[in-house]
Structure formats: structure tokens, C-alpha cells
Amino acid sequence: MTDAKIRLYVDQPLGPGQSVPLTADQAHYLFAVMRLGKGAAVALFNGRDGEWRAEVIEAGKRGGILLCTAQMRPLQLPPDLWLLFAPIKKARTDFIVEKATEMGAARIQPVQTQHTNSERIRQDRLQAHAVEAAEQCGSTFVPEVAELVPLDRLLAAWPAERRILWCNESLLGARAALLSEGTRGPWAILVGPEGGFSEREKTRLAQMPQVTPVSLGPRILRADTAAVAALTLWQAVLGDWA
Amino acid sequence: MTDAKIRLYVDQPLGPGQSVPLTADQAHYLFAVMRLGKGAAVALFNGRDGEWRAEVIEAGKRGGILLCTAQMRPLQLPPDLWLLFAPIKKARTDFIVEKATEMGAARIQPVQTQHTNSERIRQDRLQAHAVEAAEQCGSTFVPEVAELVPLDRLLAAWPAERRILWCNESLLGARAALLSEGTRGPWAILVGPEGGFSEREKTRLAQMPQVTPVSLGPRILRADTAAVAALTLWQAVLGDWA
């Protein structure tokens, strides 16, 4: 692969001979924390141009410059899978974003349901978690974490061709519906809040032709566990694990 | 079901007319935190006798007594699945124990591998996490969290009939081996430490006839994510989700 031990996400374009100026934070991390010096190699990705080997050509206290030397890997997009989830406690919401990135979701959409406690999210902080998870898991892509939207409004304009795998806690203990390879295409996974979906939401979801309800076993899973479990079921049959 | 809104794990035997003395901590939780009084209903389980409705008959500051009135559910054992994992950072180790309990592992076995950083675990603290997760997820069973043992020693005495689903990070990007329904019986899932397994460990595992290596997609999963994903794959085909 490459001699670079550190993977760094940057905003700038990456390409042959491209120089990449560093922010003060990035310079601090590379030169003070990780103690890299001139000539050291770093793996860069920006979510668009794949992964590049870059060399430190200037290292300063408040900045620095890297130079792209070779593309190590092309951009690899995840499957067209969204994760819709109702924000829960801070640590568990962070966790869901981290896990969705590792598991290969293409877009992370927080939704406000009738029983969602949290009415605000820090979108920028969650996006930073997705970047960090992408750095760690070796992905060349970073899913967008969208702004919180009401589930009602999202479903009112739901695209006809995008299926929804609905983690429906009312099915507790039912046989897990196995996904079929015949349903490839765009999908979303929908995980509810701790209080579950309201009766009105359940009625609405049950009537949508795009929706496949799924059971996740006989125990009540926390929302973060349910997200990872549903992503696994989907990825193993329809996604890039298959 | 029952009118009890609170589920509590207790050590004592549960049965018809059985009275259950509370510890000071349990009394504080029920009477001070949750503000229950005499006559209130609580759901009790002890991991052996199923779930019981019990009534508060004495409520004090440092103790109290509950009386079992009716069994609401019999004991439901999870499938015969162990989770073997190498302890990682404290919060993520706690998380693995919580998730393994929710997902229905029967036994949680921390293992010390050659690349495991942590040489000690607080077994009692982890067991308390399993109890808390069982209270939350509605399980009538609590998996034992065993003491940390070296992986080498565990494999040297490994039972011939217990299969191992080995989360092998060397298979990154390989097609996920789908488990077959023809392999029912005792299993264990083995998840490695952040540094992966050593060459010696990999050679040994590859030679064991009980071992099925499994790929978990093209991204590098953290150990806690890998544990939930592997438990999902197994439960959906061979476990009590199927």
C-alpha cells in the first residue's frame, strides 16, 4: 500500500502534484502530536478523489504544506444506503454516526419523530465524528450527516424508488425477514427512538409500499444496537459485504 | 403483560409467594429515585426463574421487601453462543458487554491475545453492565462475564463440538461467508483486538477444524462494531432471531 502510517481527511482537492496547505489544527496534530517532519508520508483523502500518498514539504507550528505524490486508491463509494435515526443521548448519537460510517452508509439523516426527546443536534459535531470514523476505518468516502428533519415531512416527499427497511419494535420476537437479493437499488434504514414510533407513525409506515418491516430478535435493542444490526443485515445481502 | 414499569434484577430465588428482601441500593433506587410506595408493582428476574410480578410490601430508607405474586414469563435461555473478545478501552469494553447481552450471547469471555493492550479487566464491573443491559432489554437471562484468560490456553482446551466464527480482519473486502442453517449447535464468536491477531494466532486458528473465518466488509471495523455485526449475522441464521 503506502509507507504512510497516518490517514488524514482534508477539504482540498487531491491530484498529481497538488499541494495541500494544512490548517493550524492539522499541523499541530501531524507535527506536534505525531512528530512528523519534512519528507514524512501521510495518506490523504477528501471523500471525492480517492486516497493519496502525500509528503510533508513544509512543517510549521501553525501550518504546513503537503504535496500529493501518488494515488494509492480510487474513490470507493458505499452502496446507496441511508440511515435514518432519531437522535438519542449524546454519546449514543455520536456512536450511531461513527458506526454508520464504519458500516458503509452513504448518508446519515437524523429524524425527529413524535417520541424523539432531542429537538436539536449539533450537525457540525456529528459530521466531524463521521470524518474521524472514516479516517479510522480506511474509507475513502465520508457520509454526509444531514440536518435534523421531522420524519413526517421526510416521508411526505419520500422517493417512490427508495425502499425503507423499518426496524419495527412491535415485531419483537417475530422471525427476522431475510432480505432478498432481488431488491437491489436505493434503500434507507429507519431506526426509531427509545420510546418507539407513535401509532400514527406506525400506521403511516405500514401503508407505504416502499417499506419492509424487520424484526431484530426477541430482546429490545437500544437504538444504537438496532442501527448496527440492521446495517449488517442489509450489507450482508444487498450491500458491499456481499 | 404486567402493570410493573420497572424491571429489577435480584439474586434471590423467585417463586409463588416468595418474599424478596432488598439491598440498600435497590431500596434507594425503587423508593427514593423511582418513588414507588407500598403496593406498587415491580418486575423481577434473577436469570434463573423467569420474570415475576412482585409487590412492595415494605418500603424503607435502607431496605424493603417485595412479594412475588405471579410469574409473567418463564426463563428464556439464549442460544448456546459465546462471545470471545479482546478487551479494549474501558468505554468500548463496557459497550461490547452491553451489546452482547442485548444481542443474546449466552456467555461473554474476555481473552488476552498477543496484541491485547489491556492485561486486566474488572470482571465485577463488566458483570454489572451485563445485568443492567438485561434489565433494559427485557431478557430473563444474564450472560456470565468470565475472567480474562489467554487465548492460547482457551484454544488448547477447546471443545471439539463448539464451532468458532472468527472475525478475521485479514479477509477485509472478501465476500462475507454466509452461515448455513446446517451448522446449528454450540458456537463462539471471536473478535480480535485493535492491532489484529498475531501471525502465530492466525496460523493456529486457520488450522482448527472448528473455525469458520468471516469477512465483515471492505472497511476496517472497530472491535465493538465487529462484535455487534458478527452477532447479527449469527443470530439471523442460527440463533433466536431466525
Primary descriptors:
homodimer, 242 residues, alpha/beta, Ribosomal Protein L25, Chain P, Alpha/beta knot, 2 domains, 7-stranded parallel beta sheet, 5-stranded mixed beta sheet, 6 helices, 29% helix
What would you note in describing this structure?
- The structure is a homodimer of 242-residue chains.
- The first copy, chain A, is an alpha/beta fold and 242 residues long.
- Chain A folds into 2 domains: 7-73, Beta Barrel (Ribosomal Protein L25, Chain P), CATH 2.40.240.20; 81-238, SPOUT methyltransferase, trefoil knot domain (Alpha/beta knot, 3-Layer(aba) Sandwich), CATH 3.40.1280.
- Helix content of chain A is 29%, strand content 24%.
- Chain A is built from 6 helices and 12 strands.
- Chain A has helices spanning 24-33, 90-103, 123-137, 151-156, 199-207, 223-238; strands spanning 7-9, 19-21, 41-45, 51-59, 64-73, 81-85, 107-112, 144-145, 149-150, 163-167, 187-191, 211-214.
- In chain A, strands 6, 7, 8, 9, 10, 11 and 12 form a 7-stranded parallel sheet that branches. A 5-stranded mixed sheet of chain A has the order 1-3-4-5-2.
- In chain A, strand 7 (107-112), helix 3 and strand 8 form a beta-alpha-beta unit.
- In chain A, helix 2 crosses helix 3 (123-137) and helix 2 (90-103) runs parallel beside helix 6.
- The mean pLDDT of chain A is 93.
- Chains A, B: It comes from Gemmobacter fulvus.
- Chains A, B: This is Ribosomal RNA small subunit methyltransferase E.
- Chains A, B: It catalyses: uridine(1498) in 16S rRNA + S-adenosyl-L-methionine = N(3)-methyluridine(1498) in 16S rRNA + S-adenosyl-L-homocysteine + H(+).
- Chains A, B: Belongs to the RNA methyltransferase RsmE family.
- Chains A, B: GO terms for molecular function: rRNA (uridine-N3-)-methyltransferase activity.
